[in-house]
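Hey, I'm writing a tutorial for new members on how sequence and structure tokens pair up, and I'd like a real worked example in the thread rather than a made-up one. If someone can provide the structure for the chain below, I'll link this post from the tutorial.
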Amino acid sequence: MSAKLAIINAEIHTATQKEPVRGALLIVDGKIADFGAIAIPQDADVIDAAGKAVYPGFIDPHTHLGVGEEGLGWEGRDYNEMTDPVTAHLRALDAINPDEDGFREAVEAGITTVMSAPGSANILGGSTVVLKTGGGLLHQRVLRDNAGIKAALGENPKRVYSGQKKMPSTRMASAALLREALVAAQNYLNKIERAGADPDKLPPRDLKLEALVPVLKREIPLRMHAHRADDIATALRIAREFDIDLTLEHASEAHLIADKVAAAGVPAIVGPSLGVPGKVETQNKTLETVRILTEAGVTVALTTDHPVLNVYQLLHAAAAVVRETGMDEYDVLRLITVNAAKILGVGDRVGSIEKGKDADLVIIDGHPFDYLSQVAYTIIDGRVVYPKTIAE
């Protein structure tokens, strides 16, 4: 296959402007080189997209793809280390099986980027990773090796550790353990800074505390699993106390305190919004959360929380938001493209069709929110990954 790939006769939806651009799109060495009314090099491979639409690859910013393997029981559940409530030093990347079926299903649905994270059994679960859903070996697919530290408040840590007769068995203890870990990391960082260039004064390496240093330096966010409004409020309070960046993950009741979330400047990854409430703290979940937060000025994205919902249902959830809330289709498209990329800190690479960005694209025979639409091609880094070969 040539290093140049052209998509001709295309209706190009950039996700940066509402109206599509008509013409061609040229990919060179895995990047978007140009699009619109452009000339096509003679040495380029060509896909004719007549009657179809081109979109940026879709993004699910909160999954457990690869660390929670489909079709397996205990053997494939590598996302929760339920032996210690504070495991900030764990890395989702170390548990990912790149051959898990969920990645194939994502590619077939046009989902080209995901964040894969540890689960929510622990107060601090470990580091998350942003990666492409196909296109190469696992290390070649990583966009951001450490996209934040997964944290959790609410029922999950309480349920796991009350059963073990240890902290946390209350919301008080959950917050206390989180503060305790952050204070210990602050002390560790202070010792490192005081040591300066003198290696003899450095404290012994502590991987748990070391993992939290980038959070304290605001290099990465704390990615907080929180459903109920009171847990969200606790997360906002702790983030303010320690002056750290925060993302709200799930945010089922964030609409109840939308003004507080907006005032804090905290983004929200909402979902999984389809299906019945699975536990007490999701009883108030509603698709309206997306609309209310968006109107309040919060940066919002959607998630399936795969495998809670299958990753391909990201598009179904987006369609349901349009249908149930009346939000504009373009604004909802941005939830699973531009906004998701921004929240994950990879907006310079993916999330929209712009010159110089990664050529992660979806060619689809209808609107992506139409259940009957079918993906014709999924392209990652300029390579067609679905189907496996280009039709002549």
